[in-house]
Design goal:
The protein is an alpha+beta fold. Helices cover 32% and strands 33% of the residues. It has five helices and eight strands. It has helices at 20-35, 41-51, 54-62, 119-133, 148-156; strands at residues 6-7, 10-14, 66-73, 81-90, 102-110, 138-144, 160-169, 172-182. It has an eight-stranded mixed β-sheet with strand order 1-2-3-4-5-6-8-7, sandwiched between helices. α1 (20-35) crosses α3 (54-62). It is globular. Residues 1-7 have low confidence and may be disordered.
Amino acid sequence: MGIGLSTMTTIIRPATPADARPLSELGATTLRDAFGSMNDPDDMDRYIADAFTPTRQAAEIADPAGLVLLAEHTPTTGGAELIGYAQLVAGAPPPAIAGPAPMELKRFYVMRAWHGRGVAQLLMNSALDEARARGAITIWLGVWERNPRAIAFYTKYGFRRAGERIRRLGGDAQTDWLLARSLGDG
């Protein structure tokens, strides 16, 4: 299905340079919602101040090795709002990822108010379609071991544990599970 896919008034579309500021706000909000209560507030603040600036988001949107997809909802009253996003990035994976032609699903977030409403499925289907269209045969991601909701979601999509890596959030060393799946079977 891919880009332009819609259900009711939610569409999935590629980010443009004009989306850098709202994407930085969405990224900060979804990260705090997902992990703020489980992390040191100063560590979160420092990470967000670095990873979710409009300048950084503009660079990620412009990166030819990647693609940022936005889930956008337009209520009947008008005025579109960003409610989720996914970021795909081509490049060398960690050694635990063994499949051919890998692509990373680097970020995948949906606003908490939209959980359970089909947005994540719409966004994931679009991300998988876009990865295939860009020649990926294997898709992989890192998910914090303390995020059971995300792990369950990815498992439903056929992702399986392939290894782990340590990632730092400020002073805290955290374990990410590396999950991967083939894109060959649609």
